[in-house]
Amino acid sequence: MDDPSITPTEKCRFYLGITLRDDTKARPVPGIMQIPGGRYAVFRHTGSYSSLHKVYRSIYEEWFPKSKYHPQSTFSFEMYMNHPSTTETSELLTEIYIPVIRK
């Protein structure tokens, strides 16, 4: 939700989510948010989570200006494809999804 390059770390807000099957009976449900469909630019990052801010900077400062797309004003999200307790830091895989529209 917040840009960590301009917002102090302790003030950054974010959503945390998990995928639930339709038949999940978990109670109480703290809140349900559905990620909107549409076109997303997807980027893969391998390595430490602490360097993700550099990936975002590269996407917005280098990739978007050269691409055929603009970022949409809705939120982006990340999917963590493996787990840091069972994966070496250098092998952590993160997918970054950013909603886009054509220029």
From TrEMBL:
Coiled-coil region list: none
Top-rank taxon: Bacteria
Family annotation (InterPro entries): AraC_E-bd, GyrI-like, Reg_factor_effector_dom_sf, SmbC-like
AraC effector-binding domain residues: 1-101
SMART domains per UniProt: AraC_E_bind (SM00871)
PANTHER family per UniProt: TRANSCRIPTIONAL REGULATOR YGIV-RELATED (PTHR40055:SF1)
Protein name: Transcription regulator
Species assigned in the record: Bacteroides thetaiotaomicron (strain ATCC 29148 / DSM 2079 / JCM 5827 / CCUG 10774 / NCTC 10582 / VPI-5482 / E50)
